[in-house]
Each structure stands twice: as structure tokens, then as C-alpha cells.
Design goal:
single chain, mainly beta, 7 helices, 31 strands, 39% strand
Length: 533
């Protein structure tokens, strides 16, 4: 029996399976200068030990499995030298609980990071998203996998990625434009992943209305594959609008030295989700109606948080929310419905170019795991309407990497396709989910030749994979090393500035063999076969 771990940012279909179901609770919270003595927030008005007590009450009530935060001191400033570890030890792993873990992040003024339940989740990777506009910032992307009860036996699991950000505050035109630029950086990261997947985006976004450019970048991106959805389905003019009182997250105060004032009249804090999560495409699905603002019962519009007769949380929790921060946390639940891979699998489906256009043939890639040798040939089944695939294209195999061409079509043509494996009797024995692309205007996208000039990749590798070239524009470059059975061994994203670059990727923990090296930005994908000796 083959044992594989498959990323759920890939398109997969399974033939033999056992089921595992669970619920993942997700909470995001702006901690209000945790561990930071700044402005009106001092060791008296915002004492870190007092905040630990408030947060402990909130965590005990919610019991999140994923706890993402903004405004955690990220530079080990006085009074605490390691704020993330201090919070972990004094607010999370307390009173008999010992299963929470923190994550790492680059040194920064205020950290955007995550704590998680190690009984349910394991951290696979962390990608900092560093940039500077009016000031230097680091957003962070963390990919987790579900710690299934049978993981050690099957080596199968479900992956999802959380991206945590804190967008520019303020209502001046310069603030709005900076939020718009930051939203572009976030969407560039998602597009650099090269395919749809299980993605969550959360943070204090400081948005006043859904018509703002930053929010439109999230819900109406240039490439609809990366569209994000509001699970609360509360799109509108949020600021000072009674109709949206149940999603308002700020401010819990109308007066105070540290807390922002103004009462509960803004929706600043969000958890947004990808199409895959909203629809359960790859074994993780948003639980309908689970999205809520913790402590928001709708009774505090334009006033301080109702901490005495709050109908949504116990009184002690409401008081802790009032004292802890000027924001309220947002929350949702995810249902895990895992299917364990055994013998037969199609995955790593992608196109080259990643944005197919009207001037070139589109090549479709897929990898096949076929332990019992059931598949005799692979074909692309495609058509111009969803669910209808009258056309067949045979795919060419190189080991278990398959490729096949789709002809040129005019701009705007819709292409829907599946990958099917046939046995020797020409019967389909496995077929993928439906995939889709719209033929684009080539003027809107860059080819690899317009991104990287003189790309060089070491094809015979001993200690490091070396990638070099001349970058013609600033880009986020995603680098993936994929085994011929479809398992992703390395997945790194790095921002590279225009000009000559050279990257060395250590491979000391990678077994010898033949691999597919995939390089991608939001606008191109290219693959090279390499041999590790």
C-alpha cells in the first residue's frame, strides 16, 4: 500500500478511503499593544499580566484551535523579553492545558502571528511577507496540516494556510491608498502559490466600507481563482451603520487612556476564506452560520461593550473582552472531512502559462500515483461549459508526470477540464475534479521571458539546488520541489527585487532521485526536471 501526504492546495481525487471528521475552531484577535508600552498604553493602563488574565478567560470560553493575533510586541521590548512565549505560558497553557504552541516570526514592531492546538494541528511551513510602504511591516503565512488519528499509519492529511495581516489604519486618502497597496501584496502572495486551495486571510483590516479598493482586491481579484469570501455574508457600508451592528468589532470603549474610543460602530476585524473552504472542495469546509464576533450581541451600537447584561457571552467573559482590547475577536469553525489516500491519485494539476492567453497553446500538467498499475493512459477531457467535456487529448508521460496541450482560443473563451486515467480496456478508473480557466488577453500578463531572463537551474544536484537569472521586475517567486509520486518536498516563497539573483536551496533531508522543480509567480509557471545525487 502506498503512503503519501498530499497538499490540499492541489486538485486531488481518491479511489479507496477511510473517513475522519473533526471541527477546527478559528479565532482572530487584535490584542491591543500586548507587551508594548507606547502612547497611552503603559504598564498601568495596559499591564501585560492583567491582559494575560483577561485573555485566559476568553480562551477558556472559546477554546480555539487556531488563534491568530495582531499587535503582539514583536521586538522583545520592555517589559517582557519574549512576548509570544510569555502569552503562551500565562494565558494559553494554564490550568492543566498544555497543548498550545506558538509560531516564529521575524523581529518586527508589532507581530502578526498564530498560536495553535498541537493535538489537532501540526505546522508545516511559515512564509514571512515583508515590505515597506510608509513603514516596514511583516505579514505572515502559516501552513498547517491536520493531525489525523491515523496519520502515522497512512501519512495522509489535510493542509490549509492562514495569512495574518494588519492593514494601515486611518481614513485619509493616503491611508486608503496604503491599504490598497497592502491588499495587493496579500493577493500577490496568494497568486504566487500558483493554484486554488484551502486559504484563510485574517486580520485587523481597518476597513470602513466594502467598496474600498483594498476590500475589492480581496473579493474581486484580477484572477478569480484567488477570490476571497466573507463567511458572514455582510458586505456593505459598515462604519457607523446600525444594520451591521452584529459584525462591528471596534471600539469596546467610549473613553480611556489606552483603548481607542468611539464605541462599537466599526467592522475592522475579519476572517475571509477561499472558495475551496467555503465549498469544501478539498476536505475542509466552513461550517455554515459559525462566523461570529465574540461578545457582540448587537446591544452596544455606538456605546461601550455591554459587559453587564451581554446575551452572547457570560458576564466574566464580557468584562474580560472589555478590559483586554478595544477590539472584539472574530471566530468561525471549519469541518475536516478527511479521506485517506491509498493506491490511486491524480494531483498537482496546473497550467503553463499559469494564465492561459490567446497567443499560445496551454500545456496542462498532472502527476499520477498508481501503486497497482491500474492506469494504461491519461487523457484531458475538456469543453467550453461546466460538466460537459466532449473533447479528448492524450497526455504524454515522463515517469509519472503527465502533460498535454490545449489549443489556442480567442480571449474570453471558457475552458473546463478534468484529467482521467484509463485502463487497458479504455475504461475510466480515476478522474479528477473539474478545473477551469478563462483565456486571457496576453497584454495583461507576462510570459516567463518577460519576468526572468537567462534562467538557470542546476539539473544535477548534490548539496543545493541553485537557481539564478536576471529578474526584469520585482516578483514573488514560489519554488516547489515535487517528487514523481506527487509529494511536495519543498515549498518556499521569496520576494526578489529586479536584477540578477541567485538562490541556493539546501537539500540535505531530501532523498536521492528524480524530482520536478516548479517555479512560479502570479503570472507564470515553469517546471524543470532535476536529479538529486
Amino acid at each position: 500500500m502506498g503512503k503519501r501526504i498530499y497538499l490540499f492546495v492541489c486538485f486531488s481525487i481518491f479511489s479507496f478511503y477511510t473517513n475522519a471528521q473533526d471541527t477546527i475552531k478559528v479565532m482572530h484577535y487584535n490584542l491591543l499593544y500586548y507587551g508594548k508600552n507606547i502612547y497611552g498604553c503603559t504598564s498601568v493602563t495596559n499591564a501585560v499580566d492583567a491582559k494575560n488574565g483577561y485573555l485566559k478567560a476568553i480562551i477558556k470560553h472559546v477554546k480555539p484551535d487556531i488563534f491568530t493575533v495582531n499587535e503582539l510586541d514583536g521586538e522583545n521590548a520592555y517589559p517582557v523579553t519574549d512576548d509570544a512565549s510569555y502569552l503562551l505560558a500565562n494565558a494559553l497553557n494554564v490550568d492543566g492545558v498544555n497543548y498550545y504552541s506558538r509560531t516564529s516570526f521575524p523581529k518586527t514592531f508589532l507581530a502578526n502571528t498564530v498560536f495553535y492546538n498541537t493535538q489537532k494541528l501540526k505546522l508545516k511551513s511559515h512564509t514571512p511577507i515583508s515590505f515597506s510602504i510608509s513603514t516596514s511591516k511583516v505579514f505572515n503565512a502559516y501552513t498547517f496540516y491536520y493531525n489525523a488519528p491515523d496519520l502515522e499509519v497512512t501519512n495522509d492529511t489535510v493542509f490549509f494556510t492562514c495569512v495574518i495581516a494588519h492593514l494601515k489604519a486611518g481614513s485619509y486618502s493616503s491611508d486608503i491608498e496604503e491599504r490598497n497597496s497592502e491588499a495587493g501584496i496579500i493577493m500577490d502572495y496568494f497568486m504566487s502559490l500558483g493554484q486554488a486551495g484551502n486559504y484563510l486571510f485574517m486580520g485587523d483590516l481597518n476597513l470602513y466600507t466594502s467598496t474600498e479598493g483594498a476590500f475589492q482586491k480581496f473579493i474581486n481579484p484580477a484572477n478569480p481563482v484567488y477570490k476571497l469570501y466573507d463567511p458572514a455574508n455582510q458586505i456593505g457600508e459598515w462604519n457607523n451603520n446600525y444594520d451591521y451592528r452584529f459584525v462591528h468589532t471596534q471600539s469596546t470603549h467610549t473613553s480611556g487612556d489606552c483603548h481607542s474610543t468611539g464605541g462599537m460602530d466599526d467592522r475592522f476585524d475579519f476572517i475571509l476564506a477561499s472558495d475551496y473552504i467555503m465549498n469544501g472542495t478539498q476536505k475542509i469546509q466552513y461550517v455554515p452560520n459559525s462566523y461570529k464576533v465574540i461578545g457582540q450581541d448587537g446591544s452596544s451600537f455606538n456605546n461601550s461593550l455591554n459587559a453587564t447584561s451581554n446575551t452572547s457571552v457570560p458576564t466574566d467573559v464580557a468584562q474580560a473582552l472589555y478590559n483586554m482590547s478595544d477590539h472584539l475577536p472574530v471566530y468561525l469553525e471549519l469541518k475536516i472531512d478527511q479521506t485517506s489516500v491509498t493506491e490511486l491519485n491524480i494531483n498537482n494539476i496546473y497550467t503553463n502559462p499559469s494564465n492561459p492567453n490567446s497567443t499560445s497553446i496551454t500545456t496542462i500538467y498532472a502527476t499520477l500515483t498508481d501503486v497497482a498499475n491500474k492506469v494504461d493512459q491519461m487523457k484531458i477531457l475538456w469543453g467550453n461549459t461546466s460538466g460537459n467535456y466532449p473533447n479528448r487529448v492524450s497526455m504524454t508521460a515522463s515517469e509519472n508526470l503527465y502533460t498535454g496541450p490545449i489549443s489556442q482560443f480567442p480571449i474570453g473563451t471558457e475552458i473546463y477540464y478534468k484529467i482521467a486515467g484509463y485502463n487497458s480496456s479504455d475504461e475510466i478508473v480515476i478522474i479528477s475534479n473539474e478545473n477551469h480557466f478563462t483565456v486571457s488577453d496576453p497584454l495583461n500578463y507576462n510570459s516567463i521571458e518577460n519576468i526572468i531572463e537567462k534562467l538557470n537551474v542546476s539539473s544535477l544536484v548534490f548539496e543545493n539546488i541553485t537557481i539564478s537569472g536576471n529578474l526584469l521586475k520585482d516578483s514573488n517567486l514560489k519554488i516547489e520541489l515535487i517528487s514523481l509520486n506527487g509529494e511536495t518536498k519543498i515549498s518556499n516563497s521569496t520576494f526578489i527585487t529586479k536584477g540578477y539573483f541567485k538562490i541556493n536551496i539546501p537539500i540535505e533531508n531530501i532523498a536521492k532521485g528524480i524530482y520536478l522543480l516548479r517555479l512560479s509567480t502570479s503570472n507564470f509557471t515553469t517546471s524543470e526536471k532535476i536529479i538529486i545525487q
